[in-house]
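User: I'm preparing a small set of examples for a lab meeting where we compare how different chains pack in three dimensions. I only have the primary sequence for this one, and I'd like the structure in token form so I can line it up with the others. Please keep the answer compact; I'll paste it straight into my notes.
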Amino acid sequence: MVIDKTGSLDLTAYSDAFNRDFAPRQTKSSRLYVAQDQQGAAGSLSGGNLISTARGVSRQDKRDVNSSVRYAQWYASQQRNRDTDPQGWFSLFAVVLWDLGWEIDERRVVEKSYSHFAGKVTQIYLNRIAGVNSQMAIVTKNMFDSLLANSSALWSLATESRRGREFSIAPAEYDKQGKLSLDLNDFSLRALAQREDFLFWDWKEGNVTLTHRAAPLTLNRARFDEVRPELNDRLDRIADAIFEFYSERL
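Assistant: Understood. Below is the structure token output for the 250-residue chain.
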């Protein structure tokens, strides 16, 4: 699919909607991982986004990854209907990240739809990532295991993703050049049955459709630092509301 980067975005738009969706009173008690500079692998959840970060990623970079993805998701939803225009929504999702400084490798943007999906979403995803990055596959598997054992996190994911109708899995790490990279994977699971454990359920072939859109991104730190002052309040409020449910013990 093509990512349309024409036009300009006002990243501080929709102030009323932002204050409604990220009210300070909702976030003050949610400062779950900002107190320590923990650099172990971690897994977090916000807005139906499951984000895993590799060992060694700094606290600030974890915050930047989480808040960037959540903000781009929220912003895209102000202009596009994810149900009726999924391609347009994902394109805008990626463009907002690009405008924040996340550079997209457009040659590797993919879209696939499995009209008779069968199996576990977690296993399908791990099989895919293991062939590309075995270390991140281990981190993501540990995140999945922690999610399955945490009923609160599992319920939050089911609620925020509308039982799998809209969710993403996004592992982040430093590449060989030391740049922060993000493998954004957006999913939509459509099935007659609605399950809280949709990620782990062994779906049988039938009336189940899984759509997957993916875009690899690398952070242009200079660009991100350029827009950060303008977005500082928004990014901080989002980051403070992240639910970190997995943290590697070093």
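A couple of notes for your slides: The domain at 43-247 is CATH 3.40.198 (Delta-endotoxin CytB). The radius of gyration is 17 Å.

User: Perfect, thanks.
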